[in-house]
Amino acid sequence: MEKEWIYKQPDPGKVLEISTALGVSPTLAALLVNRNISNRQDAEGFLYPDLSRMHNPFLLPDMEKAALRTRQAVDNNERILIYGDRDVDGVTSTALLVRALKGLGADVTWTVASGERYGLDKAVLDKYKKEGVKLVITVDCGTQAHEEIEHANALGMEVIVTDHHLPGPTLPPAYAVVNPNLHGSTYPMKELAGCVAAFKFAYAVMFTYNRVFNQDYIVLDLETTGLNYPPHEIVEIGAVRVRNFVPVKYFHTLIRPTISIPEGATRVHGITNDMVERAPTIWEALPQLIDFIGHRTIVAHNAKFDMTFLKEAVWKQLGKSFENPYIDTLSLSRASFPFRSHALTSLVKEFNINVTQSHRALDDCLATAEVYKRVEEANDPRLGFFIQEHLDLVTLGAIADVVPLLDENRLIVNRGLA
């Protein structure tokens, strides 16, 4: 009996798009599309993995809470137990976290599950309670350890769970549960290895030493009818409140100016007179914006431009001064990165930042927030050293746990194999 080969036919438009954009053969582009890698950004990330594409660890559930509690334990010299599962993923996770916390001067000990048992064990918790352990951090286990964590709580120990296994209907009574698969989690990559989850947690603990940890900033961008105030006016306002570089709250509105939007301005940002015909006036929008900003520091790219328009508008429309401190990511990026151009559109390309539409206020806000994150990371050598120092363990654990080599798993393994 002859076999019939059935070939999956990819979307020719997507094949052409990827082939043209990345300069790869149509055959390779077709293979990517057939594997559901069907846009330029995903294809570029698959073919050219780069650690800069790692997701913000504070997108993981409970991460801020878990990192802060661990930092407090380090500062107060509390005895910490790292409790790992007994497979390769668990062992590498344990080694990684012990290495990282000892590097911070923590009083840390460790254990892994033994015999036929996986995960937490009440008898082991009893043993380490007698040795003075106050904080237990699980790696690659704990998401469904209800009884064991209740037992730890009864002993006076707090438990932070870092894991990647699927949760049950309810979560255990842990101090924090860091797991991309929790119900309601918005973390972009659900299929992390346990060691990658531990890696992200350790990175977040390292980040608690950064000057911007747990600081709220307002990232601002204005689109205008021209470059000078006056005679030109604001036609769009975007503002995002960020904390640990995670967007927390958004403000966005178009503005109806008193003058017509010149064609040259429309060619830049795409905002037409028809689009703003029913938009609020600057007088109507400013009080809401000022309330949204509060007393927080503003972050903007080419901040002098945005702050000039904003200050003048507040003075003219509301009759008061606007004196919030501000940070300019344009000057910071010039001091941090040796690129030929430090325009926001150029930095978006250099850093592979996903932007829906450049020169629109809210998209440029999100891009600016990412640029600010890259600046802070570049100027904090501890973070870069931590990543390079632990890629070997994370790679070993990820491969051994047979997770899909996609997204973060893929880029970590790609760099960690070396």
Task: Explain what this protein looks like in three dimensions.
- This protein is 45% helix and 15% strand.
- The protein has 16 helices and 10 strands.
- It has helices at residues 12-22, 26-34, 40-47, 63-75, 88-103, 122-130, 146-154, 194-207, 263-269, 282-293, 303-318, 329-336, 344-350, 361-378, 381-400, 407-416; strands at 79-84, 107-112, 133-139, 158-162, 176-178, 216-224, 234-243, 246-254, 297-300, 326-328.
- With 418 residues, the chain is of the alpha/beta class.
- Helix 12 runs parallel beside helix 14 (361-378).
Q: Which properties best describe this structure?
A:
418 residues, alpha/beta, five-stranded parallel sheet, 45% helix
The amount of helix comes to 40-55%
Shape: globular
Biggest sheet: strand arrangement: 2-1-3-4-5
Rg to the nearest angstrom? 25 Å
Q: How large is the share of residues in beta strands?
A: 5-15%
* Measured distance between first and last alpha carbons: 47 Å
Query: What number is the mean pLDDT?
Result: 93
Strand count, sense and barrel status of the largest sheet are: 5 strands, parallel
**DSSP summary: helix tally:** 16
List how many beta strands DSSP finds: 10
The helix/strand class is alpha/beta
